[in-house]
Structure formats: structure tokens, C-alpha cells
Amino acid sequence: MKVLVAVKRVVDYNVKVHVKADGSAVETANVKMSMNPFDEIAVEEAVRMKERGDASEVVAVSCGVAACQETLRNAMAIGADRGILVESNEELQPLAVARLLEAIVEREQPQLVLLGKQAIDDDCNQTGQMLGALLDWGQATFAGKLEIDGQNVTVVREVDGGLETLALPLPAVVTVDLRLNEPRYVTLPSIMKAKKKPLDTLAPVALGVDVAPRIQTLKVSEPPKRPAGIKVPDVPALVAKLKNEARVI
């Protein structure tokens, strides 16, 4: 079974994000970038499936600028067998990414597609669902446990009332949550081996996909700063403050 894993290059989660001076977007120049944490979990799960014998090949796919090759090399250092970069300097929105992944799926014919449940830069949580709809495949989101049983995949996911278990026939699209696993530490030998693994680069036009943005960002602004706190002399003063100045949030 071939597993396709989508990975995205985002601003590292440890970096404090700043908005550009013109308010057009988030500043990414000279900022540390890394693989989206949810996608890293998806890669780890795919590699574990291969180690268990449930998968025969793991292919990592990324869509974006040329620097996304670094993200793919990281995925291959974790254990992916090869990488595919759909290179574009356009702003790639979820629908465009889903259509690019659909074209890659048609070329590669995987039996399972894994994605992070969302990317930490835009938090859209849309690409996996859109891809499932475009392919007309079964889909399960927010997977906290994933098992392959023959031609079926079983997914356990958290819902408001507890845990929900879903069984899907393959092929399928699954988006993963933080509780699925803990990604392994990437060693230097693995990084060196990843440099020798094949990485193909394609253009959206070669896949017949129009990636022109459909949504225009008018303005990006930082959230308002939290107002300073105040001190009260005693409990009655605190109660009076809460009664008279409490706001409904």
C-alpha cells in the first residue's frame, strides 16, 4: 500500500509572529521556518505504518516555493521514501492545494492520503476535507488513533461527547490530530540519507491546475494588547469591581 503525506512549510511554532509594516501579511523574511507540526505527526504515522508492514512506500508532497524542498528533506529524514514538490510562488489557498494534491493522487495512485488536521499559520482546517470531496473518497478528520485492517482503515477521533470510531474502506483521506503519536527525533545520519533520496519538482501548469487566489486578504493586524491589571485593597472592593465593571465576553 502506498501512502501519500502532504506537508506544509510554515513559520516555526516557537517564533513570535509579526505583521508586516504595510499590514499586508505576516513577516516571513529572515524568520525560522519548519514543517507544520500536525503534518510532522502525519509523516511519523505513515513511517510507522511502513515499519509495521502496513505500507510499502511513503511519499511526501509539498506545495509552495522552492524552499519547501527543505521541508520535504525533513520528511524524508523521518522516513519518507521520496518527495514531490509542486513549486509555485503564488499564494496557495486551501482549494488550490487540494486540487494540486488531487492531481498528484491521480499520478501516484496511493491507497491512503494523510494530512495534518490544519496548518498553524492560517488554521483553515479545509484542505483534507476538500481533497476528500474532490476525489470522492471516504474521509476521517482529527484522527487520534489509526489502524489498517486489510482494505479498511479504522480511525478513533475525539468529539464533544467522548470518542468516535469510524471505519472507512480504502482508498481514503485522513487528517491527524496531536494525540496520534509523538514524532521521532531526526538524527544526523537520517538527514544525510535524506539528501540522497529522490525529490521531483513539478509546476502547477504541468498538473493542469489553476492556482490563482480566489480570496483577497484586505488587511492583517495583530490582536489588541491586553490592558494592564489593577490592584484592590480587599475582598469587598474586588466584589464591587466585579459587580459594577464586569463585562460579558
Main attributes of the structure:
9-stranded mixed beta sheet; about 25% strand; two-stranded antiparallel sheet; alpha/beta; globular; about 30% helix; Rossmann fold; about 250 residues; 7 helices; single chain
Question: Under the CATH scheme, which class?
Answer: Alpha Beta
Describe the main β-sheet briefly.
Answer: 9 strands, mixed
Order of helices and strands: EEEHEHEHEHEEEEHEHH
Q: How are the strands of the biggest sheet laid out side by side?
A: 9-8-7-10-6-1-4-5-11
CATH superfamily: HUPs
Classify the beta-strand content into a percent band.
25-35%
The counted number of beta strands is 11
C-alpha termini separation: 50 Å
The total count of helices amounts to 7
Low-confidence stretches: none
Look at the helices and sheets and give the structural class.
Answer: alpha/beta
CATH architecture: 3-Layer(aba) Sandwich
Compute the average pLDDT. 91
- Indicate the multimeric state: single chain
Rg result: 21 Å
Total individual domains: 1
The amount of helix comes to: 25-40%
Describe this structure in words.
There is one protein chain. The protein is an alpha/beta fold and 249 residues long. The chain has a single domain (2-220), classed as HUPs (Rossmann fold, 3-Layer(aba) Sandwich). It contains seven helices and eleven strands. The protein has helices spanning 37-52, 68-78, 94-108, 127-135, 188-194, 204-207, 235-245, and strands at 2-6, 9-11, 33-35, 57-64, 82-87, 112-116, 138-149, 152-159, 162-169, 172-176, 199-202. The strands form two sheets. It has a nine-stranded mixed beta sheet, sandwiched between helices. Strand 4 (57-64), helix 2 (68-78) and strand 5 (82-87) form a beta-alpha-beta unit. The longest helix has 16 residues, at 37-52.
